[in-house]
Design brief:
The complex is a heterodimer of chains A (about 260) and B (about 325).
Chain A (H helix, E strand, L loop, with lengths): L3 E5 L1 E3 L21 E3 L1 H17 L3 E7 L4 H9 L4 E6 L7 H17 L6 E5 L10 H9 L3 E5 L1 E5 L2 E8 L2 E8 L2 E5 L11 H9 L3 E3 L10 E5 L9 E5 L4 H10 L6
Parallel strand pairs in A: 1-4, 1-6, 4-5, 5-12, 6-11, 7-11
Antiparallel strand pairs in A: 2-3, 8-9, 9-10
Chain B lengths: L1 E4 L2 E2 L2 E2 L1 H12 L4 E6 L4 H9 L2 E7 L9 H15 L3 E5 L2 H14 L3 E9 L4 E7 L4 E7 L4 E5 L16 E4 L13 E5 L6 H6 L2 E5 L10 H9 L3 E4 L1 H5 L20 E5 L5 H7 L4 E6 L5 H4 L3 E4 L2 H17 L1
Parallel strand pairs in B: 1-4, 1-6, 4-5, 5-11, 6-10, 7-10, 13-14, 13-15, 15-16, 16-17
Antiparallel strand pairs in B: 2-3, 7-8, 8-9
Helix pairs in contact in B: 3-4, 6-10
Classes of the chains: A alpha/beta (about 260), B alpha/beta (about 325).
Pfam families (chain B): ETF, ETF_alpha
GO molecular function (chain B): electron transfer activity; flavin adenine dinucleotide binding
Organism (chain B): Nocardioides iriomotensis
Chain lengths: ~260, ~325
């Protein structure tokens, strides 16, 4: 039995326009809505697969405001069994702060007899893009870490993790306990069933306050890149534009054959 | 002193590492490089042309197979040997991973995907967040300052005066714990997977406008005619129309072709994050106000199912003539 902890973050939905808060310290998601990043949806799926295969328990963890409970319920509806919510303003926490908070949860759960053999995170958060929380967590806990893989399985106390490297498809085999950060692309996140949603509503969520005061993200401010002036050259409408398009292809030298 | 973790492949120093060396010179200090594994004369000559003073070279059994923590130990040895106060790497998966290890081990912050740096005490960097849709100014007040440079933040440019690029072997203390998470096997990628997409000179893109899994015939034909690769938006892979390795975007491949031809792609941030480095964009879209059209170099307003077959026919006509 493998007990898995999977960490998710409530992030603004970046499929629409990005708006910043007035103080420039965070992305304002009130208009665009919020979601879980694609990498983390895949991490949740992998947690469900690993625990589904050997009868272990998958716990989903988030650090975020009250509304982040939505991300926990979504994960519970697709295969997680338990949930922990560190209630805090995520934008006040730097990557090292977040790693310390996750480690504090892991240690406290362990002291209470709930081990987390495998910890899964997304490779990078869709909003802050720090690319380091999983690795910092591994050092906090003194565990090995595999970074940026998209397939994960566990057998005989060893996690096998696979993903794309610069020279091909790479495989790691690491004894548990371990930390693994996940990229989208290896598994398809499942859709929640009605039964899954009903079950998720009934799970009691463990609520916690942060273990320590955050040092902060060293952020001066967020800003939006200046919109590039549109100097698009319209080549025409519909099929009639084809000769103008092929003229451009010739000019750019991509038609040579 | 600035130290750059340089990545090398069969073709020598990879482009984004050359960009990072160019960025490093702009910080004003001397630049050293750290290389883990094979170096080679050609790469050494490139490092000299980019102004590198000393190449700190880590070799040996510990580096025969990749382990992020072992590479970090090598970079730390490079920091000590060079006395560097700034540590840079390209914002590649390896660069991000190894520098995150170093930052954790040195207990200092790391800034990912940096575009520019100003000041010296402290350095304030501007970096990409939200997939490049927003920027963050971030203070790096501790030493060493650790940052990865976003792809194509600067043009790679050799130094006015070449460096000596003296190669010095690094003595690296790699612990057993550093080798626990290590690559145990590497399989050659299949020829058509995303490697080709990332290095393609021309990419034909397809989005929701393709309409269905069967809607790619003419796009594949255009891909073939231009000796290009096919790239798709996230919605296309989410709907199961095409495989994930063809996805371009924040959570797919980042491409930088000479020409990108997005067809029926609106240009949401998730996708733009992966294609914004294309030198030219020729968008085909029914909506003249779609972000992809306004950001493009050239555009055709129309349904891809009408426009693309006409382009294919025109290319064939000219080739026959």
């Amino acid at each position: 039995m493998t007990n898995v902890l999977v960490c998710v973050k409530r992030v603004p939905d970046s499929t629409s326009e990005v708006v910043l808060t007035d103080d420039g310290q965070a992305v304002d998601g009130r208009y665009a809505g919020f979601t879980t990043s694609a990498h983390e949806e895949c991490a949740v799926e992998l947690a469900a697969q690993v625990t589904g295969a050997d009868g272990g328990e998958a716990t989903v963890l988030t650090l975020g405001d009250d509304d982040a409970v939505e991300q926990l319920r979504s994960s519970l509806a697709v295969g997680c069994h338990a949930a922990t919510h560190v209630v805090a303003e995520a934008h006040r926490f730097g990557p090292a702060d977040v790693a310390r908070e996750i480690a504090a949860v892991v240690r406290e759960h362990e002291a209470a007899g709930r081990s987390h053999d495998l910890i899964l995170l997304g490779n990078d958060a869709a909003d802050s893009g720090d690319f380091q929380v999983g690795i910092r967590l591994a050092y906090e806990l003194g565990r090995p870490v595999v970074n940026g893989v998209n397939q994960v399985s566990v057998a005989d106390g060893v996690v096998t993790a696979q993903g794309a490297g610069p020279e091909g498809h790479e495989t790691y085999r690491v004894p548990l306990p371990a930390v693994v950060t996940v990229l989208e692309g290896g598994v398809e996140p499942r859709y929640p069933s009605v039964q899954g949603r009903m079950k998720a509503k009934k799970v009691a969520i463990e609520q916690r306050t942060p273990a320590t005061e955050p040092a902060g993200p060293d952020r001066v401010r967020l800003l939006l890149p200046p919109p590039a002036p549109s100097d698009v050259q319209i080549l025409g409408k519909g099929a009639d534009a084809a000769p103008a398009v092929v003229d451009v292809l010739e000019k750019l030298g991509v038609l040579s054959r | 002193m600035t130290l750059v973790l340089v990545e090398i492949d069969a073709g020598g120093v990879i482009e984004v590492s050359r960009e990072t060396l160019t960025f490093a010179r702009s910080l004003g200090d001397l630049v050293d490089a750290v290389v883990v594994g094979d170096l080679g004369d050609a790469a050494r000559d490139q490092l000299a042309s980019y102004g590198v003073r000393t190449v700190h070279h880590a070799t040996g059994e510990a580096f025969d197979a990749y382990a992020g923590a072992a590479w970090a130990a090598a970079v730390q040895a490079g920091l000590r040997a060079s006395g560097a106060t700034h540590l840079l790497a390209a914002g590649t998966p390896r660069g991000m991973e190894v520098l995150a290890h170093v930052a954790a081990r040195e207990d200092v912050p790391m800034a990912a995907n940096v575009l520019s740096a100003e000041g010296s005490d402290p350095i304030v960097v501007t970096r990409q967040v939200v997939g490049g849709a927003a920027l963050e100014e971030m203070r790096l007040a501790q030493s060493p300052t650790v940052l990865t440079v976003a792809g194509h933040a600067v043009e790679p440019r050799p130094a006015d005066a070449p460096g000596a690029a003296d190669v010095v072997d690094l003595a690296v203390d790699v612990s057993e714990a550093d080798l626990v998470a290590r690559v145990v096997s590497t399989e050659e990628p299949e020829p058509d997977l995303s490697g080709g997409l990332r290095s393609a000179r021309v990419v034909v893109g397809a989005g929701r406008g393709a309409g269905s899994a069967d809607g790619f015939g003419e796009l594949l034909e255009l891909t073939e005619l231009l000796d290009a690769s096919l790239g798709v938006s996230r919605v296309v892979t989410s709907l199961g129309w095409r495989p994930h390795h063809e996805q371009v975007g924040q959570t797919g491949s980042r491409i930088s072709p000479d020409l990108y031809i997005p067809c029926g792609i609106s240009g949401a941030i998730q996708h733009w994050a992966g294609c914004s480095s294309a030198k030219n964009i020729l968008a085909i879209n029914t909506d003249p106000d779609a972000p992809m059209v306004t950001k493009a170099t050239y555009a055709v307003i129309g349904d891809l199912h009408e426009v693309v077959p006409a382009i294919n026919a025109e290319i064939r006509r000219r080739r026959a003539g």
